[in-house]
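Lecture notes, structural biology module. Today: joint structure prediction for complexes of two components.
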Amino acid sequence: MNYYAKRIAQTMFTIWAVLTITFVLIRFMPGGPLDYLRAQVIAGNVGQGTGQFQGGSGRLASFNRLAELYINIDPSQPIYIQYWQYVSQLAHGDLGMSIYYTAPVEQILLPAIPWTVFLGGIAVFISFVSRVVVGAALAYKEGSRFDVGGTTALIWGHSLPFYIIGILLLYVLGYQWGWFPTSGRYNADAVAGLNWPFISGILSHAALPVIALAWASFGSGAIAMRANAIQVLGEDYVRTARLRGIKSKRITILYVARNAVLPMYTGMLIQIGFIFAGSIILERIFVYRGVGWYMFRAIQADDYPLMMGAFILIIVTVSIAMLVADLTYGLVDPRVTRGESDESF
Amino acid sequence: MSPSEDETATDGGTAESDPLEVLRDSETAESATFQERVRQWVDLWILAPGRVMWQDYRTRYGSAIILFFVLLGTLGVRTVAKPVQNKGPAYVQPFDPGYVITPWNLAPFTVDLGVASWTYTGIWQFPLGTNGFGEGLMALTVHATPAMLKMMIAGGVFTTLVGAVVGTIAGYKRGGTERVLMTATDIQIAIPGLPLLIVLAMAIKPSDPFVVGLILGVDAWAGLSRSIHSQVLALRSESYVEASRLMGFGSSTIVRDDILPNVMPYIMINFMGNAIRVIHASVGLYFLGVLPFTTQNWGVMINYAYNRGAMLSWQGLPWLLIPIVTISLLGFGITLFSQGMDRVFNPRVRARHAESTADTPTSIEE
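The predicted structure, tokenised, for the full assembly:
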């Protein structure tokens, strides 16, 4: 089969599988969303007051209608119809209704996406550049005291999860020294628009989360880059280039850097998934209202529709990002031949 | 098609027994005595790895750190009293000499060494200080260890087992089995781990450390499965595996004897990597408050420190820092250990340190 078609089919299959898993979790988990919603309806927390609750005789019918509204599942229908309705409504972009915010989930999450992407994009860029530079520097000084010390420090750094770094940064630079704001996305006093107070506010609010996020993949990435670069430095073509008397700066950039950086491209794209996944903890620490923060709020408030909506959004985004990564890899690295990529030896 | 007793062999002689049968038996009918074999086995599998481990500073420090945590989780829990709220004032700093206890009513005494003297007045009641609730930080840290060790074992074993079994079967069986298993693996890899763990933890609300460990391991098996799969694919066409197949060994025997020993080092090292993942994931989920706070955990400590005021003053530093240092120390120890183990698993390095392997014709392996 054509590689592209196969890869796209696989992504569709993954998304479908995840939707099915969420359906099963929502529908059948004892004490899960459906039971929770029923308890909320009986307690009168949901529906009443908003005019959706009929009360008395129409109680069951009204509960079913509410379930349909909030989690896209109508328990009165046969199971295959419930499933079909669930999947088709999600496919139409209807993620259900948040219990906590009493607003459609997609209306809550869509405005939050750019903020998460903004944090993630800068973090990926910074982490990529610093990894390449540090890893290459260690590789050039291989075996020296600088290399041994640097590698040990990187291993140590890698043994700390990124959110711990985030908490420490927030504690020292945010709370104790007051260099950076401790919560929020932008300066509330500034007028929104293209003016310096507003933009600098956005940047200073993003600084700590970005450093923490960039840290996440820095340690292992720099070690991988070091290994790549050492391998490339030992290749015959590098030695030949030296013998030919090519300037060492030219060798560094054209011969070594290009070949050592290429394998890191996939790593960088896998990070996209990581950023969306890690945003839940990160945005909770910095109270940064992105997709992850809303998922955290949903967890706190037992708001299952919002939680599942954020979960599905994250997974669809990541799947598509990885699909794009795989489809474009051939453009970046011409050595990859299509159709053999899943052959492992 | 085994040759019968009276069938003549091609060279004209009679086939007294199946030559392949002889080959199969030779492994069990070794000429060495039982004692010698035991000695060899001990030398090859215990002494030699031990020597390699001891020689490498990474395994030496790594195993010391891991041993320290195991002692903390077993003996430490028995010696350090359970944390109790308001046992002392809030925010006692570490090693504060103002709060001491005197075990066995030992009277204060002074050791005078001439150049320096030291007076015993008692031992610290709060060696690492207290948190905002007046709980001893050392007690909190120590009593969180057993549950963490259980989670690491449960999560590590589960992940590694599933990953290794799926990868090996898919790689060795090929065909439809492979397609199904590898599709499942690809899907699992494409699903980001943390959100999945959160959704599962919210749905199941586990409190037993072993169950928590299992759930935290759910997202990690796919990576191992994929790499084991590709290694097994390469191994299955090796000549010695081909030979075993021709000799008529069953699939399970070939996988056990010819394939698993080759991927075992990788699996072991992956086990340790997974243990670190479980630590980080559990701390993260406890920090978010997704898992019920039924057991002590370093993540619970960080959660309280973050939410209940430790961030606001320098006094809160121990409250925040001690669980963090603990996590990083354990993670660092495991990383060091697994990097050193890489050498232990290398058969060439190990053979150099074994005494009995170099010139004993009886040993078939290695």
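Point to remember: The CA atoms of residues 56 and 340 of chain B lie 6 Å apart.
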